[in-house]
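Appendix B, record 7
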Amino acid sequence: MRNETLFQHAYIGTTTLHPLALALTIGCALVTLTVKRKYAVIPMLLLICLTAPAQRFVIFGLDFNLARVMVVVGLLRIFIKHEVDDFVWKPIDKVIIAWTISNTAAYILLRGGASDAVIYKLGTSFDALGMYLMFRCLIQSIEDVAQTAIGLAYLSIPVAIFLFYEKHTGRNMFSVFGGVPEFTAIREGKLRAQGAFAHPIIAGCFWVTQLPLFLALWWHDAKKWLIIVSVLSVLFIVYACASSSPAAGVGAVGVGIVFYLFRHNMDSVRQGLFVTIISLHLVMKAPVWHLISRVDIVGGSTGYHRYMLIDNTIRRFSEWWLFGVLSTAHWGWYMFDTANMYVVQAVRGGISTFILFIILIVFAFKGIGDLLDSLEDGRPDYIFAWLLGVALFAHCMVFIAVSYFGQATVVWYLLLAIIGSLTPVAHIAEDSPLYSLEPL
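Structure tokens (predicted):
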């Protein structure tokens, strides 16, 4: 893959499958089909973390990247093994379906029903719903979540090692797969390592949102050395990618953990935050979202761009409210870069998609709340559930400065599926390590 095509997605629609990636894909597929259910998610996570995004093959004009291949394999497994039979509909399931339909319809209608738009959007919609259904059926308990987190914890170690190499040499070993640059990007004199991930920010956000799950393993029977090393690996990955958004995500995780001390007064905390935001908006000369422009944690951040993106979205409501807009490039300098997950919902899907996305997040938080209500305060499973909420909070915070693509979408759908499976009631078996621990 030539360097000039790396960030232009020139590889889409072209078979670019490396023999090593093919071998790893076959191995992960076979493992997914044969292992116990609680381990079946891990091969997909391993594959997407160790192969670059250009890896794909095309059949009859249909593009199958490796994540999509694993979705097909995962769905095949849950139907063959009848793991879909116990699926119970939850409110969040209906919302994610409605959001996907709205997003898909808006995209296709805005482009006049062009065949290439239909094929592309149906493919991404299949990814969204397919991943969600696969994860919903494979993860059915806190114990399953813990096993997935343990797998990710082990995986974080080699990823950190690869990024360490890249950070100190300026060369990305995964460039042989295409889709990532051979020479590491530099900003403000800092190398921005990314490994196999689609972008340095995506690498950082992928891992920082897993940090609460690794911390939650402290109350599981996981090895303490693994927890400590995985947390340190995540912190190094955040450092190596040299991006403010993942660094802010670490802060969001810290805030979410501190909120545990005020868990019995969260209504007051939320009301206080709401009043503070409104008050700041009234007394500031600029709108309250202008505060984003002042955020620069690692240097070279584009906080002002993100402020202008939000400001333009609000001011240009009439342009996008129905089905979104084809492009935001005419909004100003570099406005084609919609680096905000909430803005993307609006400008690519219209007001209905934006509202459904907000409802999806609200339902996810409500699901966490219902789960906490069903558990005994202070027990290890309660803390585990709280940290799931912290992970959701971390996603929502980094959404302000990042629009997910590539590998980051996988862990987003994974968390939504976990919440969907565990709420409104989490069942902890009496022989579970979580059950036997004393309240804290």
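Remarks on this record: Residues 1-8, 425-440 have pLDDT under 50 and may be disordered. The two ends are 54 Å apart (CA to CA).
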